[in-house]
Amino acid sequence: xxxxxxxxxxxxxxxxxxxxxxxxxxxxxxxxxxxxxxxxxxxxxxxxxxxxxxxxxxxxxxxxxxxxxxxxxxxxxxxxxxxxxxxxxxxxxxxxxxxxxxxxxxxxxxxxxxxxxxxxxxxxxxxxxxxxxxxxxxxxxxxxxxxxxxxxxxxxxxxxxxxxxxxxxxxxxxxxxxxxxxxxxxxxxxxxxxxxxxxxxxxxxxxxxxxxxxxxxxxxxxxxxxxxxxxxxxxxxxxxxxxxxxxxxxxxxxxxxxxxxxxxxxxxxxxxxxxxxxxxxxxxxxxxxxxxxxxxxxxxxxxxxxxxxxxxxxxxxxxxxxxxxxxxxxxxxxxxxxxxxxxxxxxxxxxxxxxxxxxxxxxxxxxxxxxxxxxxxxxxxxxxxxxxxxxxxxxxxxxxx
Length: 401
Known about the structure:
single chain, alpha/beta, Rossmann fold, six-stranded antiparallel sheet, five-stranded parallel sheet, 13 helices, about 20% strand
């Protein structure tokens, strides 16, 4: 299996660029020639399966018939149904609780949101008749306000629409419309709701349903999205990899569902992905860099040691520790170094190391915790890059297939 990924806008800041060797820049969805350009891109890279992660693309791809390419989406009828909340509510109101939909007469408080599409853009609580009239004038859907807890159910159905997975998680902490704090609730009554939805709609592939509680605690369906959710990784961390299982199912394999673990509390937080610095060799410090003050290896920094080895970077250890080899062994850090050099004065040791190994300062990077030493190294070797252990993300990472 060879994995490709890509995006259309601001691709220079897409973290996937740092993860994937096979990164492609895609045409924008609204480009009049999107279909021909994107299909040409798929053929150019010999891509056989496409998993869209944005609702308008799900709807578009569901209607395509491209020889040799499988789009992991539901059939076109269901993809279009899931794009419209009123149509979804009307289809399912006899099976699961849905919010009341309001008309011209104001009912307050209410909740305004686009009828078509998904996500949190242009949504708001409506508390005045003036705002109610404005929301209607803006073409927004007005429904009852649901003040209670919110849940997502990550689901997967096989290509015949038979439900394989229904993993309930509470959207405990929200940020910009996505769950940044979530915890699973196995055995929740929402599993039964999703079974009824699956039996009625026969949604093929990955999908998720969102529910929110009214003032009395009744959970009501907010929307269904026929794709993988932003926090579906929670279900993967609990042992069920929905994207991978989707690929197996749509390739004709028999899919078995592993046991869904419980108790994983997921917090999504900011991570940093950098365009990798240009360097051929890394000079590592030892104490307070690879080894923490408590004598244990720093797992994040040591991970970069492995990553640089994977990328074929030359690596050296320059340390004031009198016996760095013994310290490495005591901390179970592998010897991935071309040379281990104990020294009482790092600039002098580095000068000799560069000479002995035919290196220039410009192709080297020093990772060192001491700012006093860093200033001295910068003054002695102006062309050498220096970073501290808290900034090892700047080293970049190996791109994966």
